[in-house]
Amino acid sequence: MNNTSRERVLTAFTHEEPDRVPMWCGASVEFWDKCKKHLGLDDEALRIRFHDDFRRVFAKLNMPQSNAKHGITYTTPFGIERHGMGYGQPISHPLANADLKQIHDYPWPAPAWIDVSNIRIDAQRYNKQYAILGGDWSPFWHDAIDMLGMENMFIKMYSEPKLIDAVLGHVVDFYAASSQKIFDAAANEIDIFFIGNDLGSQTGPLLGESFFRRFLLPHLKRLIDLGHSYKLKVMMHCCGGFAPLIPAMIEAGLDGLHAIQTSCFGMDLKTLKSQFGSKLVFNGCIDSHRILIDGSVDYVKQETKKVLDIMMPGGRFIAGASHDTILEETPVENILAMFDTLWENGAYKK
């Protein structure tokens, strides 16, 4: 019997079944604010209402001040200015035409920018009741795309592979150093190193398995090994249809995958569970679009039960939405229906 959310989650990462299926709630700021207003709850009370078994702690990024242009919504640690909704889109690709020397000479971010002074205190306030997510998000694939441009990057994978290696190497150097600072400060208060790289589209992986193994897997393994060296589980968020890449991820030692978009090609839950369910934790799996946004409350309940029937047996399953952040247009009553259905039907029979 698991007495805390933390124990429940960590049991799910073993070959054992916990007392019940752990639950995960990741939400956009807009949806979260809508829920708080709708339900009259503060942040922690809302997490409790959704039966969320996780809490997350963040380091602070203290970047040097820059003269941002009008309309810039976000600047990455690598100096990429973005505009548009949310985090926006890059307005330029500064390394698109760079040679190897220019890549090495680029003003790469410094680990000193990462302030970890709050991490330990932030994690300790949960008194080991919840599974704590920590470490740098480390979206090195996205950063390489921003710096090079996607089409240009794919061409250079063929024509100038050492340039791609150099860019990815510098990017992951920063993220590894950032997470190492976090773990040095508070690894014994953190349970899961949570990272994110979207490698799939609606119709399949964004790059083939051979290129994934050649260019990305060594860097992913470097981060996985870092987490394991601090005795942490490592879970990666990955959108889209990326099933052909899962065997390589398992070889690299990845412990869990989030958020499993069942609407994408190749992401059939029965197939994923039968092929990889004994080797990976699957987190998510309840379709954010067709079920949670478009569905009725009764349909949400029905489909949530179907997901439980497929994914519960044998453990290694965490239930939640199939998107990393539930979007604002999602009806609050549908999310309540999902989590309440999980609570009512997610207990393992002992």
The number of domains is 1
CATH class: Alpha Beta
- Based on DSSP secondary structure assignment, what is the total number of beta strands? 14
Which fold name fills CATH's third level, the topology? Answer: TIM Barrel
Order of helices and strands: HHHEEEEEHEHEHHHEEEHEHEHEHHEH
Based on the coordinates given, report the CATH architecture: Alpha-Beta Barrel
The oligomeric state of the chains shown is single chain
Q: What Rg, in angstroms, do the CA atoms define? A: 20 Å
Task: Give descriptors for this structure.
350 residues; alpha/beta; TIM Barrel; 7-stranded parallel β-sheet; 3-stranded antiparallel β-sheet
Task: Walk me through what this model shows.
The structure is a single chain. The protein has 350 residues and is α/β, with parallel strands linked by helices. The protein has one domain: TIM Barrel (Alpha-Beta Barrel), CATH 3.20.20.210. The chain has helices spanning 5-12, 29-39, 43-49, 100-105, 119-124, 140-148, 150-159, 161-186, 209-229, 246-251, 269-276, 288-293, 297-311, 332-345; strands spanning 54-56, 60-61, 74-75, 81-83, 89-90, 114-115, 131-134, 192-196, 200-201, 204-205, 233-238, 256-259, 281-286, 317-321. The longest helix has 26 residues, at 161-186. It is globular, with a radius of gyration of 20 Å. The N and C termini lie close together (9 Å). The mean pLDDT is 96.
